[in-house]
Structure formats: C-alpha cells, structure tokens
Design goal:
Elements: H1 2-19, E1 24-30, E2 37-44, E3 46-57, E4 63-68, E5 75-81, E6 87-92, E7 96-102, H2 107-110, E8 112-113, H3 118-140, H4 149-176, H5 181-189, H6 210-217, H7 236-246, H8 252-266, H9 270-286, H10 293-304, H11 314-327, E9 340-342, E10 349-351, E11 359-365, H12 370-385, E12 392-398, H13 403-412, E13 419-423, H14 431-435, E14 442-447, E15 452-455, H15 462-476
Parallel strand pairs: 1-7, 11-12, 12-13
Antiparallel strand pairs: 1-4, 2-3, 2-5, 5-6, 7-8, 9-10, 11-14, 14-15
Length: 477
C-alpha cells in the first residue's frame, strides 16, 4: 500500500513538474528559405525597442529551434531575419511549446501553427487586418470624390460603420477568451466610448468639458497593469505618451499627481513599474514645458532616493540625485539665490538683490556664443519696444571669462539702457551651481521680490509670460 502511495506521489509530482516547466521551445520551418541566420527577439515598451534574445541558423530544410529553460515573462516575440527586412511575430508565454511552418515571402497567408495555440487566433486577426485595411482605405478614397457636405458625411458614416467591424472583432475575442493574452492586447488598445449626451451644469448649461474629462477618467480602465507581458509588446509607451502629452494638465502639481497614479497602478509588477518610472523620469527631465523639472525632482526624491528603484545602479542614481540637487534651488516659485558680481569697471560690486525693478531678466551669456550673439541684441530691441513699460531690468552675467570680448560686444551693440552688465572674474559667486548654468544663454525671469517666475525662456516668450503675470496680479486684486 505504501509503495502504491509513493508511486502515485512520484507520478503526480512528475506531472506537476511537466505542466509547470519554465522557458520555451520554438520550432519554425520556412519552406522558401534555408541556411540563413535568424534572431529571436522581443519587444519592450514600444515598437522601436526590439531586443535580441537568441540567434540561430536555418538548416538546409529551412528549420530552426530556439529553446530555453529560463523563466520568462512572455509577450510578443518575433523571429527576425539577418537583413532585418522580415520578421514573424507570435505570442509567447512562459512554458510554451510552439511549432509553425510558413514562407518568408507570404507569412500572414501561409503560416500554420501545429497543435493548439493562441497564435492561431493571433494570425486570424492579422489576416482580418490585411483585408479590413484594404477595405477601409477604399472607402476613405471616396472622400476625394465627394462633391458636397452631404457626400462627405455619407463617406464618414461608412467609415464609422467599418470601424465598428474592427471593434466588434476584438470584442468577440475578448468575450470568448477573456483570459487570453490576445484579449489583454485588445483591451490595452481600446479607448473609452464617450457618452453622446452631455450632462447639465447647475446653471442649466451643458458641460462641454465632460467628453474630455470622461475620456481621461476612463483612459486606463481596460489596461491591465497587473500583467507584465504587456510591457513586452509594442503598446505601452505610445499609450503612456498619449496620456501624458494630451490629457494631463502641463503643470508640475498635475504631472506629479498623475505620475503617482500610474506608479501606484504598476506597484508590485516589476517590469511595468520599472518601465513606467523610467519613462516618467525621462519625460519630466527632458520636457520643454517650463517648470516641469520640478516634477523630475519630485520623482527623484520620492522614488529613487527612497530606494523604490533598486535596479538603478549607483552611477545612474548619483547622476539623478546630482541633477535634482542642481535643479531644486532654482525651481519656479523659489526665491532666487543672490549673487554678487563686478561691473564692467572691475571696481563696483552689483548684487542681484540690489536691482530695483518689477521684473528682472537674469541672463547668463557669453560673447563667443553664437546663439547669445543673436539673442542679446534682440532682447535690447524688445526692451526698448515694450519691456521698458513694465519696469524691467536685464541683469546680464558674462559666464565664460571673456572680459575684453564682453566689453567690446556691449559697446558695439550699444547695450546700455535697462542693462546691468556684470561678471565674476574672481570666481566667487558660484553662479553655475546656484542657477544650473550648463549652457548659454540661460535665462530666468524674477519678480519684484526676486522670486523665480520663469526659467529656460527666450525672447519669444518672455513678454507673454510678463503679460500673464500682470494679468494674474490684477485678477488676484
């Protein structure tokens, strides 16, 4: 009896091991290709992020096998030919044993998967897309022939009906196989269906912001942040980019709140959290929107410096922390650090704090900088034309120690009225650290209390910023 029990136990344990195996086995055959190098690749975050996992050569029968016993997350993988002109995509999950035959010249129509595989549905969908795309373009081409508004509306109605075919196809798969990865992919690309009836405001008017707010509020409803396989597909970054760039109010407070929301959804999912934090950090650090560096500092202080990005090596962490520390003292809304500089005579000290003006444009520039050579005369013209009436002063710091060229440039361009020209010949002001000056020209706008109101600006937007601040003053009053 004990022997029977032991045998059953070993048999069950062996069976569990078999069904719970890690890694993958991929057997492919190309009937029109042989003796050719191919690569097993996977996506990561977006379509252009394609990473090589393995490489092998098709044998004389056009066959190749990729095997691994190492556990994988899964996602969309592909076999890519050496010349990068052809690839075969397929869904790969941990433990999968996949086998297919196809031709390189006509993958979509010829591919056949052996046994049961989610890729049968995946390629049925690919074939549907080819036919659907051709039909959609044919209808779209009718817009050229439209002679009036009625004709145009009729074409758009046909396109709407056609678009529903695609939506219905995806929803049918989701309904029939809700736990499949293909269903996860379809849910990930789906967009909220906005109600056509607008709600009424308390004053009786229709809420015109409702469609946008509804769309934003339901944007992530069907994206499964708890499934890391979606990171190994070409979908996530484009969706994240669309959300951050088009739906999030471009102010630091709003961006910080949205970053927290996304990272909270991804919390506990290693790959999704890692990719999300990396993307949001890069997005805030490189943003052209004024003041967005505050959100970058927020992410560094609240995630990296708190040990929530353990994959970050010490060098990269030090780089982020150093960058945040340089930005923190000169963020919008912070009091400007006072700097004491010498005037052109080399005798008088002219501190920034001593400049009396409603607005001070703080410029770090160099007479040998080509951009500066163009920008400085333009600022002078702008000052004389319009900035002067707002009681603006320009505190211009020569940043590179080119004393003789500096004085000559000032004289040649007659940069006199409204300008306070200073430099730091003895290198005592520490202006580069205080104001994060790593290139010239670098500009800040300070108010009458020397609080930073704008940074990284130029002649094209400084006037608009001052006018906005003036309007804000009147509104507050």
């Amino acid at each position: 009896m004990k022997k029977i029990f032991l045998s059953l136990f070993i048999l069950i344990a062996s069976f569990i091991q078999v069904i719970a195996k890690d890694g993958y086995s991929i057997k492919a055959k190309f009937t029109d290709q042989k003796d050719t190098m191919v690569y097993l690749c996977n996506y990561f975050g977006k379509a252009s992020n394609v990473y090589r996992v393995d490489s092998a050569k098709l044998n004389s029968n056009g066959e190749v096998t990729f095997k691994s016993a190492k556990k994988i997350v899964g996602g969309i993988y592909s076999i890519l030919f050496y010349d990068r002109t052809t690839n075969v995509e397929f869904i790969l999950n941990n433990g999968d044993d996949i086998s297919f035959e196809t031709t390189r010249s006509n993958i979509y129509q010829s591919i056949v998967f052996k046994g049961t595989s989610e890729n049968v549905d995946f390629y049925d969908y690919q074939r549907f897309l080819v036919k659907y795309g051709a039909e959609y373009q044919k209808i779209e081409g009718q817009l050229v022939l439209a002679k009036n508004k009625k004709d145009t509306s009729a074409v758009y109605e046909k396109l709407k009906v056609k678009g529903k075919e695609l939506q219905d196809y995806r929803e049918n798969i989701i309904a029939k196989k809700p736990t499949s990865f293909l269903a996860k992919l379809f849910n990930a690309v789906s967009e909220p269906e906005i109600p056509t009836v607008l709600p009424t405001n308390p004053d009786g008017t229709k809420d015109s912001l409702y469609p946008r707010n509804f769309y934003k509020g339901h944007f992530w409803d069907k994206y499964d942040f708890r499934d890391d396989r979606l990171i190994y597909s070409p979908l996530y970054e484009s969706k994240l980019e669309s959300y951050m760039s088009k739906l999030v109010i471009p102010t630091p407070d709003s961006v910080e709140k949205e970053c927290d929301m996304i990272l909270q959804k991804a919390k506990g999912m290693e790959e999704t959290f890692k990719y999300s934090l990396w993307y949001l950090t890069r997005w805030t650090e490189t943003s052209k929107i004024m003041g967005m560096d505050e959100a970058f500092v927020y992410l560094v202080e609240n995630y990296y410096m708190k040990g929530l990005a353990p994959w970050t090596d010490s060098a990269q962490l030090a780089k982020y922390v150093d960058r945040a520390r340089k930005i923190a003292p000169n963020m919008i809304g912070q009091p400007a650090m006072d700097i004491r500089m010498m005037d052109t005579s080399g005798i008088n000290v002219l501190p920034l704090s001593a400049v009396k003006a409603n607005y001070t444009i703080l410029i770090f520039w160099s007479p040998t900088c080509g951009h500066c050579q163009k920008e400085m005369p333009i600022f002078d013209s702008l000052y004389k034309a319009v900035l002067k009436k707002y009681n603006v002063k320009i505190y211009a710091v020569e940043a590179d120690g080119e004393t003789d060229k500096w004085k000559k440039f000032i004289s040649d361009n007659k940069l006199g009225e409204g300008w306070v020209h200073v430099h730091d010949p003895n290198h005592t002001s520490n202006f580069r650290a205080f104001y994060d000056v790593y290139s010239t020209p670098t500009l800040y706008l300070l108010d009458e209390n020397k609080v930073i109101r704008g940074k990284r600006i130029d002649h094209t937007n400084v006037l608009g910023l001052i006018e906005w601040l003036e309007k804000k003053k009147k509104t507050n009053k």
